[in-house]
Amino acid sequence: MQATQELYTYEILTKNQTEMIQKAAECLARTFIGVDVAGKWVQEPMVGQLSIAYEDFYAFTKDYLDSTVDQGYCAVALDTDNHVVGVLAGDTNAPEIIGEDVFEGSFYDMNVILHVLEDVDKRFIEDYKRRSGKDISNGDMLHLFMLGVIAEQERHEVIKQLGNRLITKAATQGLKAVVGEATNPKSIRVMEKYHNMKKYQDIEGNHIVHMYKDNSKLQAIPANVADGTYIIIREL
Asked: What InterPro entries does the record point to (predicted)?
């Protein structure tokens, strides 16, 4: 067995790496839409439940990376053939609440996911303001938005290394916290284990969560697969 450091290399993407950005978007889209990795089915529960095509989700992912990569928070894992086998992509933008449908046509169901994310984000923004007395600004926090790993071996090590690079960078740049919307228990477990992120508790001590059983479009997601989308956080 090769040592892990020989299996994969890691880097943070820059704006001019257009081909690598495309490969990163493909990796993320595959893991969200659904892909078999070493005999295990990997899929994001909400995307799996809704009618979302790979091409649409890839375009969404690529747009996100193109618009945020210059912030320096998109890390990739590369195998020995220079294939992208893992991506953790984030940004330092303050959460934005649009409050209405923005996706059309074959990608219409993406609005369901957008509203789930906006629901937990809105409650987090409000609670943060109650605690701190001020709004979240751009550059305050690292928002970890998308994680996808198609590495056949050492998947958890890949997640660990990707996160370490981004969280260390956020800390050195003086950001206050790392925050994310975790849509399934696997994501929560690995982020707890490897990056000390925890389910966020509001000022009353309650988790901020959008329960799938209360959403008519998502209630068919089995509770043993995922029960909801949670805000997770780590103070820096």
From this structure: Acyl_CoA_acyltransferase
> Domain-by-domain residue ranges, the chain?
4-235
Query: How many residues comprise the chain?
Result: 236
Place of tokens 């960078």: 169
pLDDT of residue 1: 45
Q: Are 180 and 232 in contact (CB under 8 A)?
A: yes
Query: What pTM did the predictor assign?
Result: 0.94
CA distance 16 to 212: 39
Architecture per CATH, domain 4-235, reads as 3-Layer(aba) Sandwich (3.40)
> Rounded to 5 degrees, what angle do the CA atoms 48, 54, 58 make?
115
